[in-house]
Write a structure and sequence with these properties.
heterodimer; A: 350 residues; alpha/beta; Rossmann fold; 5-stranded parallel beta sheet; 4-stranded parallel beta sheet; 40% helix; globular; B: alpha/beta; 5 helices; 24% helix
Chain lengths: 350, 233
């Protein structure tokens, strides 16, 4: 009798635990990764947790697993890229996928093939995942609607660059964790500065979504001419495309005091022509992250930059390679985060 | 064992099957739907015995690495390492291995298993690895683990220790150390609960349900969840 009731008790417990496990299990929902704005907090955390496991794989002597064996990943790049394309390629290969690179130059795109035709052709030759960079905002959405394949946005115009935002969140979580003596730290309640040309930055846009979804508060810093319009005003009725609540400040020396992390954006020199910036020198004097300014942030605050970096403009050379710089780690984390994205997308059943 | 005796439910009323890890025949649990086949004492004795067997087989303990397969193999490895420390006064290296990316059923699952980092010594070259899992069933997880381990180096040898061997192998894999041989029906569910992960030490068997003359698992709802419970495969 005693044994009976004990068995029932134990079985009961395991029953309860089973239900909890199922309920707790975060799963990946969307077939594509087009931006961060559609991701829930749990989905972002699932990517970051998965990336943790992927980063360990990269440190193995033989960094290759069979997880995506038989999966074909196509990198379709209509715009220049070194780190993003290389890290997607490596991510796919480490997971055992076949990776094909197609660039806008030298492909049928030059013969006038439409985007829809191109993605359908890629699907026909067996693409399971299409990683796409395009100069026009929204192009990956068009591809996602027309290709029966998973689409990952690797940057579209000024709009979004979700994997960059996710790797930045991952880098911040690791950096905060290190300061607290743990493997990973939370972004909850942290104040993060995004400095520079926010208006033309898809990195900034996706980061605003990722960071605020994870509970951080974001302050955008830069000349007013380089800030997205409409941030200070309430969105009009029926308008849903606005960005989440952020602070805006045009005085870096004021905003950086007590910041938990600083993210500098690349100043795109091609913007200079459009007279949005009077001169690079003036920009550097007001918005360059240098040692004096970084010292006003919280102690050991991580410094991020999505690259490629214009040293001496956005960031002073000494802090760019200083102890607080996460720039190199961002590149390494990029591979792990992109492995996580490929794995979750390609291995979630249709 | 250190953590095993904290639950009053286990003390002083050993179950009929609490024979500890011997290799005698134990009747299948078909008679009852749910059955505790090992309690905390039985698990403790089985692990102590495995620790002794490992010591008998290996004169040079310094080359050993006890590698637990996530999730429940990891605490098993730590407990055996504790026992070896107690008996011999030497600390054996331990590690944790995640096999998610090496599974052979990734393309058949609805959701991919969550990937966690493995945690292994710097080099596995010329080390003798004792791989630990809670339940040995089809052998497919072990196949995945062997593949994963080879990516870290070239061990001198790999051995296998399991708390429960429930039979029904689908691959040519056999364990070197067994806590308990447990004849089961293929449809039975064997769950290992450990204090580190489940707040209690026990091995529970739940019989498969007879349905139209066919046996199915009593809870087929979620394979992923079942595996998180420690159902061996």
């Amino acid at each position: 009798m005693v044994i009976e009731s004990k068995a029932a008790d134990l079985a009961g417990r395991s029953e309860t635990r089973r239900e909890t496990a199922t309920a707790d299990q975060t799963t990946w929902t969307g077939p594509h990764l087009l931006d961060v704005d559609t991701l829930s907090r749990d989905e972002i955390l699932l990517i970051l947790e998965t990336a943790e496991g992927m980063e360990e794989v990269l440190h193995r002597r033989v960094a290759r697993t069979p997880a995506l064996r038989g999966v074909t990943v196509v990198n379709l790049f209509y715009e220049a890229s070194t780190r993003t394309r290389a890290s997607f390629e490596l991510a796919g290969k480490v997971l055992g996928a076949d990776v094909i690179n197609v660039s806008g130059n030298g492909s049928s795109v030059e013969k006038g093939e439409s985007l829809i035709d191109t993605v359908q052709t890629l699907k026909a030759i067996g693409a399971d995942v299409i990683v796409m960079r395009h100069p026009s905002a929204g192009a990956p959405y068009l591809a996602a609607r027309n290709a029966n394949a998973h689409v990952i946005n690797a940057g579209d115009g000024w709009h979004a660059h979700p994997t960059q935002a996710l790797l930045d969140a991952y880098t911040l979580s690791k950096a905060f964790g290190k300061r607290e003596g743990k493997a990973t730290g939370t972004l909850e309640g942290k104040r993060i500065l995004i400095v520079g040309d926010v208006q033309h930055s898809r990195v900034a846009r996706s980061n605003i979504w990722a960071l605020t979804t994870l509970g951080a508060s974001v302050t955008l810093v830069g000349p007013r001419t380089l800030m997205p319009r409409g941030l200070e005003t309430e969105p009009e009725a029926g308008q849903t495309q606005g960005l989440p609540q952020v602070e805006v400040d045009d005085d870096l020396d004021r905003a950086i005091v007590g910041a938990d992390a600083v993210m500098a954006l690349r100043i795109q020199t091609e913007r200079m022509r459009s007279a949005m910036l009077p001169s690079l020198r003036e920009y550097a004097s007001r918005y360059q992250i240098d040692a004096t300014r970084l010292a006003k942030a919280t102690k050991g605050a991580p410094l991020l930059h999505p690259g490629p970096m214009n040293q001496g403009i956005e960031v002073a050379a000494d802090v760019a390679h200083g102890p607080q710089s996460e720039v190199e780690r961002q590149v390494q984390h990029g591979v792990a985060v992109r492995m996580a994205a490929l794995y979750l997308l390609a291995r979630t059943g249709e | 064992m250190t953590r095993a005796s904290n639950s009053s439910a286990e003390n002083g009323n050993g179950t009929r099957n609490a024979s500890g890890g011997d290799r005698r025949f134990v009747p299948t649990p078909a008679a009852r739907e749910r059955q505790v086949v090992m309690d905390a004492d039985a698990i403790r004795r089985a692990l102590v015995r495995i620790a002794h067997e490992i010591l008998e087989h290996h004169a040079d303990v310094s080359r050993l690495v006890l590698v637990g397969m996530r999730t429940r193999g990891v605490p098993l490895g730590e407990r055996i390492a504790e026992a070896i420390l107690r008996f011999e006064g030497v600390t054996v290296a331990t590690g944790a291995l995640d096999i998610s990316l090496h599974r052979d059923d990734l393309s058949m699952r609805e959701f991919p298993p969550t990937v966690h980092p493995s945690d292994l010594p710097e080099s596995l070259d010329d080390r003798v690895i004792v791989l630990l899992d809670d339940v040995l069933f089809t052998g497919r997880s072990i196949r995945a683990a062997l593949d994963a381990l080879i990516d870290y180096g070239r061990p001198a040898a790999i051995e296998l220790a399991v708390l429960v061997d429930r039979g029904h192998r689908e691959l040519p894999i056999r364990p070197d150390y067994v806590g308990k041989n447990l004849p089961t029906q293929r449809s039975d569910v064997v769950e290992v609960l450990l204090t580190e992960t489940d707040d209690i030490d026990a091995v529970v068997v739940r019989a498969g349900v007879e349905k139209d003359g066919l046996k199915t698992e009593s809870d087929p709802s979620s394979t992923a969840a079942t595996e998180r419970r420690g159902r061996g495969s």
